[in-house]
Amino acid sequence: MNFTTHYQLSITKQFSENDLLKGVYIAVVHATRIPPHIGLIIDGKYHSLSIKGQDINIAVAALIKNTNQRKIPSLFIKIKPHSTFSELYLKEHFLTNIQKFPRVDIGVATCLSHIKLFFDEVYNVPMTDISYLFELVPRLHSEGLIENSTALFIDETTYQLPVYTTTEINAGIVEVRNEFKKKNS
Q1: Rounded CA gap, 177 and 164, in Å?
Q2: Are 158 and 10 a contacting pair, CB within 8 Å?
Q3: Where in the chain does DSSP place strands (E)?
Q4: Boundaries of domain holding 120
Q5: Which of the ends of the chain has fewer CB neighbours closer than 10 A, N or C?
Q6: Within 13 Å, how many C-alpha atoms sit on residue 23's CB side?
Q7: How far is CA 94 from CA 25, 78, 140, in A?
Q8: Coil, strand or helix at 130
Q9: Is 13 part of a structural domain of the chain?
Q10: Alpha-carbon dihedral 33, 159, 67, 44, rounded to 10 degrees
């Protein structure tokens, strides 16, 4: 897939925390950092995979409070409602996807791994050639799955998805792991 250059996403909706309480959203946290961190919000709960492990059922209010306190540039991409499955089913299925990975680690999993499984299994969107957010979002757009997007601490009305490499992902994993070890030693 060759979406590696200059995919732009329009910020089509003003941010409202209440919007995140219903539906499925891709949450791009530290959206301007390379690489950004990616999680999923389903029915008002945030789920992600990090070097610390699985973050499951985090209230959106807690995510937004942290985002606001630290002024973290964040993007929220709303996925169109599934034609068959309820949000409860989507959430339960996603939790089984995230539980397949103990944590983010080099050569094991990234924060995108479980999200790829989810879209492949539930939305039947092929993910074998997707390795990065800048490939995922255009694929979901081409499949007609993106309903709208909103952002916090991103000033642009058109957001340029950052392009990065596996080397940069691995370096980010090492950097975050070292920061985590310093805090906990």
Answers
A1: 19
A2: yes
A3: 8-10, 24-29, 37-42, 45-50, 53-59, 74-79, 146-152, 158-160
A4: 8-183
A5: C
A6: 18
A7: 12, 16, 17
A8: coil
A9: yes
A10: -120
